[in-house]
Amino acid sequence: MKWVSKIRTRSISVFVVHAGGCRDCALQFSMALTGNSEVKGITVTGNPKHADCLLICGCINDKSRKKILEIYEKIPYPKAVIAVGACACSGSLFRRENSGLHTAEEVLPVNSWIRGCTPGQIEIIEAIIRAIQNVRESDYKTVKAGVNNEQE
Amino acid sequence: MHEIIWFLAVILSVPAIYIAYNYINTLMPGQSRTYILQPVYRLLKLFEKKDDGDNFLAYFFSAGSCLFALIALYMTVSGYNFLFIVSVLSMMDLLVITGAVSSSEFSGRISAKRGLSRFVVWLFTSMVASASVYKIAGTLKLDELAHLSESSGLIVNLPFTFISLFVILLMKGNLLHFDFGLSGDELSVFGDALFSPYSGWSLAVIQLAQWTEIGVWLKILSAFLPVTKAVSYIIVSLLYLTFLILDRFVSDIEWKKAARLSWGWAAGLSIINFIYLFYY
Q: What is the pTM for the complete model shown?
């Protein structure tokens, strides 16, 4: 329904995960929020139970992968995952064959990718709004089954 | 009819306070821009969200707490006895805490502990405050208190009791150390956040219950001022809004410390006022 997706996009709570890295992607996101007067309705939350969107910044190692999965489980549906920056999208220059790094796509179903080092501010905001508008339940069910299998 | 108008006015006034706070927040430099009706959009969004957990009890307890909050509000606008209202609010608070415990999560137990601490503080303060009010007015019925206050002003004899009840209002508004995770601004640690056990639909209902409860306390506090009911309600609401804004923008550490630790002396102030009345 149109009005539901409209309400969703008018109050978006974002949970930012610094998976490991220089944190410049998260800084770009903060600057996009506070420096742009046209962006409205997006807030940062420290509580996964309030969040609508998971923003993954930086390289994902085994340790942060577990935590990201835990946080993702606690976010109520509908939820979107966005990989921000080259590290989260592809591992960037840190990724080698046995480095133990994962891309965001290997961990969770990603709704949007914002490539680049560093990614653009407007692109991050636009990706968040579009991802929340177009989020589907099937993405969530797939990862739920995957996480359950892994725990067993 | 009079009660129903007051009931609706109080229910609508609390979201209006939060909308005003949100608007002022948006005007400040360096803050994220939000829509004017952002608190309402957030509430509607929460109703639409689904919690994946199998915690059915959280739904039951949140609905129960909202029901008790509405009953307490009706009793307040009808001018019932203050202690009856406090007992209904206790029931509401206990349902919220029980719902938190029933989630069987670490965060749920931590929230319940904080909720119990808050419960002890506000209930004890209310008991002492009611004793002081009874000593001065000879009644605890809110409509009689408001009528008496219009001529003489209860706040003149009960200034510390008024402050301690205002501290309860701040505690209920999650401004002090007892955030139940409603505001989303509470302390969190990566992966082991001290977050609320409620989310989605149950969180939205708890949010409604909290707004109703704030309305109840605003109405109770308005019975202390020496002006008409409507004017005193507006004054207390503006005072609460001022405190919300100050808490958001005053970054002075000492001021913050004094404000945020005020729950520690809420009951103490109430006792001081009672002792003063007893001896003088």
A: 0.84
